[in-house]
Amino acid sequence: MNKKTILSACFAALSCPVAFADSDNDHNPLYPDDHAPIGVMGDHMHAAGEFMFSYRFMHMNMSGMVQGKKSISASDIATSVANPFAPPATVRVVPKDMTSNMHMLGFMYAPNDDITLMAMLNYIERDMDLTTFQGMMGGTALGQFSTEVSGLADSKLGLLYRLYDEGGHHLHFNLAWVIANGSTDETDDVLTPMNMRMTMRLPYSMQLGSGSDQAEFGLTYTGKNEQLSWGAQALTTTPLERNDEGYTVGDKYQMSSWLAYQLPQSTSLSLRLIYNHSEDIKGQDNQIMAPVTTANPANYGGHNLQAAMGVNTVLMNKHRIGLEYQVPINYHANGIQMDMDNMLTLGYQLAF
Questions:
Q1: Distance between first and last Cα of the chain
Q2: Residues sharing a CB contact under 8 Å with residue 161, sequence separation 6 or more, in sequence order
Q3: Using only C-alpha atoms, what is the Rg of the chain?
């Protein structure tokens, strides 16, 4: 039995005993720290019959290059880092900076008190600036160019299953199916080391999706008293199959913990720590073989620790607005990768 079959069986087993509740039930007013910081997904459950709509905008900036834990200049990469698709012998194109904007629409519905169903649609925009070095060797910069992509990214269907809820402490199981509907064959014009413009398939980091359905599962714990709320979440994401282009994105593991303090006037402040670990890409797309760092599957994955500060407020007892600013503290990249500067998440949640 493969991973995809197991995931389908889990959904069926948990979804069968669903009884739809009366949609006219009254719901308790929403407080700003009832949910986790806005950057956390799948953090809370809903009462029977309750719906929730959410929108998140996530903006991330990256610049410069790192090799393992240390910064490395573009010229050093061009003169010393081997190109696995030689010739040329060394990398000739190096990313300079990148921005990523993601728009996330979320929907949640609780058919009963023990199960909350969820769906998420994602739209992404990426823009990368790169430097091309002249000829087959050396550190002479030829020029710069930009590549851009935008479109639907991979989406998600999932459920949350209540395991414990008593005395201000709550524990639930997270299960989701990440659907591979993001494109993996995006192209754009690039500047080659021979000073020519060519249309090529873009590297993995500029594709809109993974090309593989994935399973996501984990646990989420939350606690709360009159002024403080806290929580922790551990999630694992693993591909269910190799994609049509011949590669598989690496397994991902994330642990997140947070603390929020309730202020007067329906506002709360939060602090969060996030640990990410991901494996490199297995396999290779035979149409992604340019002499650029992002075309090497070994230059993906690694681990990092990040910190985030957030503020949340509630309007009219049901409209929650959240803001979170996230920066890296420590990192170790597999191979050579771009360095993350920061990420800003702005979100809106409405329960009814």
A1: 40
A2: 14, 114, 115, 172, 173, 175
A3: 22
254-267 pLDDT, tens digit per residue, is: 999 999 999 977 89
Cβ atoms 10, 16 nearer than 8 A = no
In a domain, 12, yes or no: no
Whole-model pTM above 0.70?
A: yes
What is the SS3 assignment for 293?
helix
Q: Report if residue 9 sits inside a domain.
A: no
Is 44 part of any domain?
Answer: no
List 344's β-bridge partners, or say none.
59, 325
Q: Give the DSSP letter string of 66-110.
A: EETTEEE-HHHHHHHSB-TTPSSSB--EEEEEEEEEEEEEEEEEE
Domain enclosing residue 102, as ranges: 50-308+322-351
- Tell me: pLDDT of 20 over 80: no
Print burial letters for 217-230: b (CB count within 10 Å at least 16), e (below 16). Answer: bbebbbebeeeebb
How far apart are the C-alpha atoms of 72 and 303, rounded to whole Å? 18
Residue 6 belongs to a domain: no
The CATH number assigned to the domain holding 301 equals 2.40.128
Please enumerate in sequence order all residues whose Cβ is within 8 A of that of 256, keeping only pairs 6 or more positions apart, or say none. Answer: 40, 232, 233, 234, 272, 273, 274, 275
Give me the residues paired with residue 163 across strands: none
User: Per residue in 301-321, pLDDT tens?
Assistant: 999 999 999 999 999 888 999
Token pair for 26: 């009254």
Rounded CA-CA distance 261/258 in Å is: 10
Count up the domains in the chain and report the number.
1
Backbone angles phi, psi at 244, to 5 degrees: -65, -20
- Alpha helices by DSSP H, listed for the chain, are 3-15, 74-80
The whole-number pLDDT of residue 7 equals 47
> Tell me, what's the pLDDT at 264?
79
Q: Could you tell me the two tokens for 55?
A: 């929108």
Alpha-carbon gap, residue 299 to 281, rounded angstroms: 8
- Residue type at position 263: L
pLDDT at 21: 34
* CA dist., res. 137 & res. 157, Å (int): 48
Q: What is the DSSP letter of 298?
A: G
